Amino acid sequence: xxxxxxxxxxxxxxQIFVRKAAVHSRSHRSFGSSVASIRLNDGNSIPQVAxxxxxxxxxxxxxxxxxAALDAGYRHIDSAARYANEEACGxxxxxxxxxxxxxxxxxxxxxxxxxxxxxxxATVKALCSSLHKFGLDYLxxxxxxxxxEDEEKRLxxxxxxxxxxxxxxxxxxxVSNFGAAHIKNLLRYATVVPAVxxxxxxxxxxxxxxxxxxxxxxxxxxxxxPLARGNKLKDPTINAVAQKYxxxxxxxxxxxxxxxxxxxxxxxxxxxxxxxxxxxFNFQLAAEDIQTINALGSxxxxxxxxxxxxx
Length: 311
Ligand SMILES: NC(=O)c1ccc[n+]([C@@H]2O[C@H](COP(=O)([O-])OP(=O)(O)OC[C@H]3O[C@@H](n4cnc5c(N)ncnc54)[C@H](OP(=O)(O)O)[C@@H]3O)[C@@H](O)[C@H]2O)c1
Hints:
- This protein has 311 residues and is α/β, with parallel strands linked by helices.
- It has helices spanning 12-26, 60-72, 86-100, 120-134, 151-167, 180-189, 208-216, 236-245, 249-259, 271-278, 287-294, and strands at 37-39, 45-47, 51-52, 76-78, 108-113, 139-144, 170-176, 196-200, 220-224, 263-264.
- Helix 6 (180-189) links the parallel strand 7 (170-176) and strand 8.
């Protein structure tokens, strides 16, 4: 059982959890890269860091970024139908697999169902369209991008995801932007517990109650906008910690998130940043520094998140 999201970092509970998690993550699928992987509640493994591609164009620029990420050691790409770049991501992934002789199962590809496609039939159609655009036989993870307004359609969408998982069109299924009420409502209805909830999480937006609810139910947190969209890189606390470790502020933000056991999804189209973001996980923040960062904030959204924690 994961410790409470608000358990002190140096508590015996959290230390035991961290040790167990380290042993656990070494003991399963590694994706042939140095990036740690985490076990999901359905038994599948997920690489803990992904290249996010929000606002990346459906063009060579994104193909180059995805290729640079895979060359650097990323094995996980986080896209969405809404980002309208599934073709570019798919082209880059397929080309890279062929070039390097890497197996399809050694990369992890995520896409998301957009709000306009809720409902059983529409969801199946949207997933088929995403698969077609990627040029892949299956996705590793497919998420409901946001709960949207229509509860009945949302639940039908979840039923379609459960069927798609059974059919092998997608290995794992999950949600995004679900607040506590959405999660509780879905859990009453679902046959399959979502593997992840992808939400905005970084030191300025920690969402402790939502994270704790997800942890308790075995739903892994995927932290989006883990760099706070670059808006907090001048924060004095983050900079003081960065200076202490000889790291960049971005690396401190990413390390903090991973130290909580979250999957992190930094977005960059810049090769040097793609590389340095991946180098954020080879050091350990001391408990006192984690405590200092924990004091920074709880719900300061940089994305104007569609749905808050308690929704
Ligand atoms: N499910 C959802 O509703 C949802 C919502 C938001 C995001 N996401 C996912 O999460 C991913 C990341 O979130 P995000 O794109 O909102 O923001 P983010 O990753 O927090 O920040 C991205 C911004 O930071 C810059 N950046 C990246 N690395 C940097 C570094 N080392 N130093 C300085 N600046 C750096 C990037 O610029 P360059 O590209 O120019 O390097 C970009 O402007 C998305 O791409 C998407 O996959 C999901």
